[in-house]
Amino acid sequence: MIDKELLDILACPACKGDVELKDGRIVCKKCGKKYPIRDGIPIMLIDEATD
Questions:
Q1: Which residue(s) pair with 35 in the sheet?
Q2: Residue 3: is it exposed, middle or buried by C-beta count within 10 angstroms (0-12/13-18/19+)?
Q3: What is the pLDDT of residues 21-47, one digit of tens each?
Q4: Which residue in 19, 26, 31, 46 could disulfide with 35, CB within 3.0 to 4.6 Å?
């Protein structure tokens, strides 16, 4: 779904932590915020994140 190279350069906008792909969402390894993916595009907006 998300290219590995893109995932490697993404960071959580809330805490700047590393992220991983989990259950179809981008999940921050540090703070745990979950960002949606819509039409193959990660929506890395704090307002769109869930805890």
A1: 26
A2: exposed
A3: 999 999 999 999 999 999 999 999 999
A4: 26
